[in-house]
Amino acid sequence: MQVCGTPIETFAGERLAAFKAGWSHSFGGQDLVGYYIGREHEGLTACKVVKDVASMEECAEGEPGLLVCRGGNIMRCYVGDEEATKKAIVEGGWYTNLGDVVFSLNGDLYWLSRESTLLIKGGSNYSYEQINSELTALAEKEFQIKSGGVTVAVVGLKIDSEHEDTCCVTVELGAGWEGKQGEVEDR
Question: Which of 7, 99, 110, 152 has its CA 20 to 30 A from that of 58?
């Protein structure tokens, strides 16, 4: 949301109309309730809605997609991680790691949700798959369990804040955990 803003010259009635447009939107026969987050800052920040970050193909007006941005407000790189930088900042300087699902109407942007594979905690974005694999590896190493003996599922829930996820982790113990369940539960 920090890449968008409400134009200063917008009057209260115009803002209300912008909000209502997002609340009553539908695309492809599906009702979508979008929350107005503003528009790009002309000359400073550029925004677009894309179907996927690999192709950077833009979505049609009103079609949900991923928000990407470019401008002087984005970071230049991940310190010490050139591969992550190449993945996040693509040709043309577009930053693709926002993880926000949005749609646009007449230049206004409307937020729908977070991309399901990202979890926000402490101002940082984490991949569910990353947390999942790290916890699985830790459990297997800590309790000397063969690979595949534990199944971990990670879900982000908006409980305490709409801006930060509370991480919920479930652990399913499979073969090889016999006699160790109490030890695992104690930790």
Answer: 7
